Amino acid sequence: MSQSILDTMPGATTGTVSITDSLNFWDGKRVKPREEKNAEPVFEPATGRVLCQLFPCGSEEVDEAIKSAHAAYQKWSKLAGMERARVMLEAARIIRERRDKIAKLEVINNGKSITEAQVDIDIAWQCIEYYAGLAGTLAGQHIQLPGGAFAYTRREPLGVCAGIGAWNYPFQIAAWKSAPALACGNAMVFKPSPMTPVTAVILAEIYKEAGVPDGLFCVVQGGAETGSLLCHHPMVAKVSFTGSVPTGKKVMEMSAKGVKQVTLELGGKSPLLIFKDSELENAVKGALMANFLTQGQVCCNGTRVYVQREIMPQFLEEVVKRTKAIPLGDPLLNDTRMGALISKPQLDKVLRYVDQAKKEGAKVLCGGDPFVPSDPKLKGGYFMSPCVLDNCRDDMTCVKEEIFGPVMSVLPFDTEEEVIKRANDTTFGLASGVFTRDIARAHRVAENLEAGTCFINNYNISPVEVPFGGYKNSGFGRENGQVTIEYYSQLKTVVVEMGDVDSLF
Ligand SMILES: NC(=O)c1ccc[n+]([C@@H]2O[C@H](COP(=O)([O-])OP(=O)(O)OC[C@H]3O[C@@H](n4cnc5c(N)ncnc54)[C@H](O)[C@@H]3O)[C@@H](O)[C@H]2O)c1
Ligand SMILES: C[N+](C)(C)CCCC=O
């Protein structure tokens, strides 16, 4: 039972945890892999130790999970919104109560700092609480027609939804997808990233404890093959995917074959515009928030930082000073602000981007190197020092591609018109940001940037009441906010005749 894992968390330290529990969950319980073959090791990023083994689910297991979800859907969808809300509020309460333990487990599997993981878990229970609040408000419309006839609309669930997650926010992504899905009366089968399989199953147990019907939120483990089984399954009505653009395109293609609805939360290369009239200290803090959360592995990061030429020297001096001061190391220590990247291949990829940037003419102002903490147990961890790149140009690889690591590219600009054009010159469109004291300029820039979110005078805050999602290749559909109800429900129109049929035949 996972409770035993969570119960060991208060005393757990980096490098001491091993997980042997089954990580699949359907029919209201953890389910052992049918065959213990094709095992993949799951690593603790801060040490490089093997944390557990992952056994990918095959077609029979995926089918079992989906059938269990469908049976639960038939019960759950018949409840009143307020009845669903009560169960969801209880789930939110349990998460809040266990927040520190769940956060610790998340850190051990993901490598991010405990301070950040605690915020992630808070955002997760807030999301469930928020959609519990909306569950009782779902309603249709009454439309009066001639002759006493009328029509009404019903907001109905879709059925079994599949959720496919990335590894950077494992618990939070599972909550962002399941909360609106369940509020609308759907069931969900969730597949976490094979690199972070551990905490989604804790969420499944909490939903069960809160009182959802067995099977309502299931977890199947695996990678591309298991994900594609979900996308192809005829009993799946919708796929909500978080991950890279190339995988998102495949998910859309597979889902199209079954005419399934799709939400795609994909990658980005977001611009952050800092004008010379900005409050500089806030702009610098914003640039750090835009680049270094979760070791830079954040989809909406503002990694192209455009700074108006007149304030470039002061900006660089301050941003470099603060970047060098980021406490880097054991992610379970309260003072640490940056932990380890998710994997050795990811670390190597990010370091290659820094090398390539240097070759293309960028100047490394700080960081960009592998980092070996002095604590011996962290020697095998996937750490690197956060990096600020100067002398960047729009045509450089580091400015064009999503690096997904702690690398900030800084570029000068002169005019508003010029910087908007350059900021929009990308196939991505997830987020953007602007720092200025000029209120008219702030809103003009927000209007003209081609992105799903524009932060004014801040960056990377994500209240659950606010919709989140992309433009262009960064995807479509939204998570969070009221609008997401529309992505997890469908509208039925009922037309009622009160008199005789006026037939043409
Ligand atoms: N927009 C957002 O909300 C958001 C949030 C987090 C991460 N991301 C993006 O995710 C990427 C990093 O995450 P990642 O490396 O896990 O992405 P990824 O695309 O490699 O994998 C994402 C998920 O898709 C699964 N998958 C892989 N191939 C599949 C296939 N053929 N069919 C079905 N499922 C498949 C993976 O197992 C994983 O669960 C970055 O590009 C990042 O920007 C976006
Ligand atoms: C919570 N953040 C920081 C807005 C990240 C959302 C998910 C993106 O990777």
Question: Which key phrases capture this entry?
Answer:
505 residues, alpha/beta, seven-stranded mixed beta sheet, six-stranded mixed beta sheet, binds N,N,N-trimethyl-4-oxobutan-1-aminium
Explain briefly what this protein structure is.
Residues 38-494 form the Aldehyde dehydrogenase domain. The protein is α/β, with parallel strands linked by helices. It has helices at residues 2-8, 59-76, 81-97, 99-110, 114-135, 170-183, 200-210, 224-232, 245-257, 280-292, 312-324, 344-359, 397-400, 416-423, 439-448, 484-487; strands at residues 24-26, 29-31, 40-43, 50-54, 142-144, 150-157, 160-164, 187-191, 217-219, 236-242, 261-265, 271-274, 304-308, 363-366, 387-390, 407-413, 431-435, 453-456, 475-476, 489-496.
Layout: helices, strands, pairs:
Elements: H1 2-8, E1 24-26, E2 29-31, E3 40-43, E4 50-54, H2 59-76, H3 81-97, H4 99-110, H5 114-135, E5 142-144, E6 150-157, E7 160-164, H6 170-183, E8 187-191, H7 200-210, E9 217-219, H8 224-232, E10 236-242, H9 245-257, E11 261-265, E12 271-274, H10 280-292, E13 304-308, H11 312-324, H12 344-359, E14 363-366, E15 387-390, H13 397-400, E16 407-413, H14 416-423, E17 431-435, H15 439-448, E18 453-456, E19 475-476, H16 484-487, E20 489-496
Helix pairs in contact: 3-5, 3-7, 4-5, 5-6, 8-9, 10-11
This protein binds nicotinamide-adenine-dinucleotide and N,N,N-trimethyl-4-oxobutan-1-aminium (2ZO).
GO molecular function: 4-trimethylammoniobutyraldehyde dehydrogenase activity; aldehyde dehydrogenase (NAD+) activity
Pfam families: Aldedh
Pathway: Amine and polyamine biosynthesis; carnitine biosynthesis
